[in-house]
Amino acid sequence: MDIQQNLKEVLADIPQQVRLVAVSKFHPKEAIEAAYTAGQRIFGESKVQELEEKYASLPKDIEWHFIGHLQTNKVKYIAPYIAMIHAVDTYKLLAEIDRQAAKAGRTISCLLEIHIAQEESKYGFSLQECRDMLDEGSWKGLKNIRICGLMGMATYTDDTDQIRNEFKTLHDFFLELKQKHFQDTDSFKEISMGMSHDYQLAIEEGSTLVRIGSKIFGERNY
Ligand SMILES: *Cc1c(COP(=O)(O)O)cnc(C)c1O
Questions:
Q1: Any ligand 1 atom below 6 A from CB of 195
Q2: One Pfam family name from the record (predicted)?
């Protein structure tokens, strides 16, 4: 597995304005070091314990993104250093991130996870739940979080029309919320969508952050 070559190929495939989150979950720190040496600085992890160990032993200029489902009782561990939390799917979690960020003297960038796939099992707000949460307005009092945009995962399928439609749904919803709640908020600009098997489609549909793991680091051993 030539991680540096894979990284180079993926980067060559991504336009300048799209940022790459190299998803290193389940891969050892040596794999991250290889990508780091090749210049990659943004890494994505989905388990708090694993991230904690990697954070402690790897260079401090790495920008860590938490991309997995985050339990409220674990926010406190990563609040001192996490750069972005991609999968905020309840107001309760958002409020806890705010509380822990305040304790750490920080403002944490968050994305709201929207359920766009047909699969039942995926987390995320429905469009209506997200509208209701934002309309209700309490989030405006949270001063230590920054809502930077949306995140979504398409259905795992070979049907590219379906994947494309789901990404379109997320992009359209981003525009709706931008217009309604974030018109004067420059930092509301991110659409995190696209993984190893569907990032090209995601980019065509307006992704600004792609989360790519296996295409760079190889298959994961769970
Ligand atoms: C694991 C994971 C990825 C990366 O998946 P690959 O198919 O390996 O690119 C992206 N996003 C999330 C939320 C993940 O959990």
A1: yes
A2: Ala_racemase_N
DSSP symbol at 141: G
What is the value of pTM for the model shown?
0.97
Which of 122, 195, 203, 210 to mutate to test ligand 1, by most ligand atoms within 8 A of the CB atom? Answer: 195
Q: Residue 88: beta bridge partners?
A: 112
| Beta-bridge mates of residue 112 | 88, 150
Cα dist from 4 to 26, 116, 185, 217, whole Å:
18, 32, 36, 9
Kindly give the distance from the C-alpha atom of residue 140 to the centroid of ligand 1, in angstroms, as a whole number.
Answer: 30
Which fold is adopted by the domain 3-217? TIM Barrel (3.20.20)
Instruction: Please give the C-alpha separations between residue 126 and each of 11, 90, 112, in angstroms, as whole numbers.
Output: 32, 11, 11
Residue whose CA is at the smallest distance from ligand 1 atom 4: 213
Helix, coil or strand: residue 41: coil
Q: Ligand 1 atom closest to Cα of 197?
A: 7
In single-letter form, the type of residue at position 129 comes to E
Q: Give pLDDT tens digits along the chain (222 positions).
A: 799 999 999 999 999 999 999 999 999 999 999 999 999 999 999 999 999 999 999 999 999 999 999 999 999 999 999 999 999 999 999 999 999 999 999 999 999 999 999 887 668 999 999 999 999 999 999 999 999 999 999 999 999 999 999 999 999 999 999 999 999 999 999 999 999 999 999 999 999 999 999 999 999 887
